[in-house]
Amino acid sequence: MSLSLSYLTIDISSVIKVPCAGIIQIHEVTSSSSSITTTTTTSSKLSSPLHRFKRFYIRKPKALKVVSSEYSCFEVKGVNYRPPGTQHNLLNDVNFSLHEKSLGLIFGRSGSGKTTLLQLLAGLSKPTSGSIYIQRYGEDGNPNQSPEDLPPERVGIVFQFPERYFLADTVLEEVTFGWPRQRGGIQLKEQLALGLQRAINSVGLNGISLDEDPHALSGGYKRRLALAIQLVQTPDLLILDEPLAGLDWKARADVVKLLKNLKKELTLLVVSHDLKELSSLVDQSWRMEMGGFLKKEPM
Ligand SMILES: Nc1ncnc2c1ncn2[C@@H]1O[C@H](COP(=O)(O)OP(=O)(O)OP(=O)(O)O)[C@@H](O)[C@H]1O
Ligand SMILES: [Mg+2]
Question: Is 90 in the pocket of ligand 1 (CB under 6 A)?
């Protein structure tokens, strides 16, 4: 593919043309004729990935929200975790609640269990006991619905040093890795193309060619790409494990700015040792002590 192309083609079953910026047009090419039908796109929502090889899900677009003072929280109640075949809990009675569209920070000593907790939230392993759910609250601050499960497809996770898991030769292939290869409807293709455009714009990757080798990007741009991969499916909760680790000062500042913008759209839970740099973004924070005991500790 030429770097000067303004459109790139994703071959799923028909043709989706994705501009690096601007309006997406999706062309369904029929086998019986050479005519091309352009479909006007509308906003859509895709669900989230959890894992490099398990990152494509799809769910229905959400209904438009009516402005009200109702809100929801991601809640963790009495969670214990003991890996199968072991004698000791890695996490003990973990409890916390994270308001939607806020940023929660978990910090603590190495080996205390922070990554283990993130893996439970992302659905990569299951708590031995306790529950993880979404609770909606009414204007009076009381629960107004039964708690909802937190399905894995509503959670995105960016692992520590995500660039180590890049597999593809181009940015486009890296972002679309895991997308379904079977024939899908035009609606699915619209959602994919829109999600891709939105994700690329929201992490500031629109100045980078989709033909670029992901391994050749700077540290900060690799981190943006890892975020974009998760954001294509617009998760409700985005989990980041040490998002600033291994970056130079400029890239760290860029990622902090990016997280500030993302917080307007979704809920973020960050594990980090970089408390000073993140403190201006943090709404709630907890220290994890050895043995996986979580305690509220404001910044
Ligand atoms: N499957 C497992 N079986 C037994 N022990 C495990 C398992 N997974 C992790 N551990 C142990 O659980 C503890 C917590 O690990 P975890 O990676 O969650 O810590 P962390 O707080 O993220 O540390 P760091 O800050 O270094 O990333 C460590 O002692 C680790 O060796
Ligand atoms: Mg860890």
Answer: yes
